[in-house]
Amino acid sequence: MENKDVYLFSVLNVKVNQMATSSIPHSIKYRSKESFIRIVSLSFFLLSFCFQSSSGQGSEHRSKHPNILICITDDQSWIHTSFAGEKAISTLAFDWVASEGLYFSNAFSASPSSSPSRGAMITGQEMWRLGEAAQLFSAVPKELEALSFPLLLEKKGYFTGFTQKGWAPNNFHQYGWDHNPFGFIYNLQELQAPTHGIVSNNYARNFKLFLDLCSEDEPFLFWFGSSEPHRPFEVNSGASLGADIEQVVVPGFLPDVPEVRGDVADYLGEIKWVDQQLLQMIATLEEKELLDNTIIIVTSDNGMAFPSAKNNLYEYGIHMPLAIYWKEGIKNGGRVIDDLVSLTDIAPTLLEIGEAKVPNEMTGKSLMKIFNSSKSGKIEKGRRYVFAGKERHTLCREGDVGYPQRSVRDYQYLFIRNYEPDRWPAGSPDTPSIHGFLYGDIDESPSKSYLKLNSYDPKVKPFFDKAMAKRPAEELYDIIKDPACLQNLADNPEYAGVKKKLTGVLDKYLVKTADPRALTGESLWDQFPYHFNK
After folding, report:
1. What is the CATH number of the domain that holds 485?
2. Strands 159-164 and 335-337
3. Which letter, b or e, does each residue of 249-276 get, where b requires 16 or more Cβ atoms within 10 Å of its Cβ?
4. Average pLDDT of 63-79?
5. What's the rounded Cα separation, in Å, for the pair 140 and 37?
6. Nearest Cα to Cα of residue 360 among 111, 158, 123, 177
7. In this predicted model, what pLDDT tens digit does every residue of 238-270 receive, in sequence order?
8. Which whole number is the average pLDDT over 63-89?
9. Could you give the CA distance from residue 40 to residue 20 in angstroms, rounded to a whole number?
10. Is 396 within the bounds of a domain?
11. How confident is the prediction for the chain on average, in pLDDT?
12. Residue of 10 and 401 predicted with greater confidence
């Protein structure tokens, strides 16, 4: 924000705090008095732009189809927004989108690895249907052009663009793509980054530049792909970014020690930084009189970059934040949706809204029935399961092979199949990765270093083993009782019926969606080249 905007916002926040009473609406789960104050504060903040802007400054930008702004953070688990109950930071923009639109409490990524997750979201199908693009640092098959929703919307007249990280990290030149499917990249506007872990991209100003180039009679699609909270973080930067380390809750799969607690605070600080950039983008939409006719989608690609989270099919690896605002197209905003949804559902939803044909290859399901409902909770009876998968993430095992997995999640249980249980799930303990470190499928961090240095300690060893040790072929977790996925129930006879049901559901779905592993029992992905420039 500009200094004057910071001052304005602080003044409004004081006023709202004075106005707040103990009578808070209960129509939205997770909403506390504090989050209610934040949401009302943002309403004042956006309203202030209307008062500051003369009628000549705002443009009556109207198009037949709604505009689209997608904010996708890099490595963020679902629980880390103040709307979902996080107390160490406030995510004012996310809270406003969720409060005024829809909050999806059960949204899931198709993969816990960034590139295949983004590819699945962009093409609206499961990651094992992406061919070579189901792995990190892959070349993207040319035929996926016909399934990429940004390109399909571009053909319907949408003005497209993105900033920072689009469908990445990938090689689009190998098979002759003209460009990243989101079109031109807007990275010209820079700022002084507040920490060494944050890039110098001025996301909000690059979005404004994009809008300035968009004509008033065409709808736009802008992809805000932040680099945060991807590692590395500047150590002890959390406090300077607004994270309260005393309020940090360390996930159950990590030890609650100062090194880890500080690491989580640094991660949360970067989430708040991205949220502040989104806040400015929302204000720009309001200033230009575009907000009412713009769909705003806020989510992430995969879970937090910590041991036992990112690059794992555990809850903290695939359960995503998701909030969607669309004043003119969502009935009864302010609802919490408990349906199981996949990020692959976004592509067919946006194509339907943009009146573009939804390709038959898409396995995702449109969210329009949920948009058009007036109810909260579970709406569509057919949404009983979500699926995810992983192939090779990085080169960190002998032979450059991956750690292939598939999973199915219902409302209570998560079942995971590990196809190669003899391999090291986090990378080999004695084979350096292409990035130069051991256990290479886990990003280097203070948390990882603590587990490695203290693995001999009987209090720490269970956390180390959870992240790094070999795993059985099958895993089953009761997510309601055990969201940290610590107690494997796969061999517990009391849960034999649950496991049988979920294995049957998974097998049937993998065949239906033509997973090569289910059809032939063979892997394609260990042989594909890895396009990484060291």
Report:
1. 3.30.1120.10
2. unpaired
3. eebbbbbebebbbbbbbbbbbbbbbbbb
4. 94
5. 45
6. 123
7. 999 999 999 999 999 999 999 999 999 999 999
8. 96
9. 9
10. yes
11. 90
12. 401
